[in-house]
Amino acid sequence: MKKNVKELENLIKKVKEYNPNVDHQIITKAFNLAREKHDGQLRESGDPFISHPLGVANIVADLKLDTTSIVCSILHDIIEDTDISLSYVEKEFGKIAAIIVDGLTKINKISFETVEEEQAENLRKMMIAMSEDIRIILIKLSDRLHNMRTLSALSLERQKIKAKETIDIFIPLAHRLGISQVQRELEEKSRKMLLR
After folding, report:
1. Most exposed of 62, 89, 180, 186 (fewest Cβ within 10 Å)?
2. Which among 9, 80, 132, 188 is annotated as catalytic?
3. What region holds the HD domain (predicted)?
4. Catalytic entry in 62, 66, 81, 92
5. pLDDT tens string 138-154
6. What is the pTM of this model?
């Protein structure tokens, strides 16, 4: 618990470096909600689930995205994995945040496993078309990057499936959007997993 609070403080400090006027209270509010609602949930590694939204938020901050993006990255799994409704997100965090979180929830429902090249291109196009706001894609890429950083808890077979999905779907998407730092790390981690 204390570790997560320290991670939140470090996240806010990181955001303040490029956005000195950041509304840190709304970020803290999102963190408190996510921590409460994901309480007791664990990642496959055994880590508290809240470590994942914080990890995604840190990647989003590395991309120097706005406060709404940070908030939505913390809340990106809250509709799918808890009893929080989209209307609650809108009431507490605003309409734009609700649109982004809803877009992330819809994208999370797409199955990326075992796609052929033509299907992969169609899935990339569908993800872009489904995204009313480009921040949805940027947060989803950050989500995938954090998952790739923490895949060691999965079986080798599942790691390879995730690596192939990343190569087929997410690396071309990062390239298309010109997010080279995310693209490079996704390539490095995916290729390393496929060579195992």
Report:
1. 180
2. 80
3. 49-148
4. 81
5. 999 999 999 999 998 89
6. 0.91
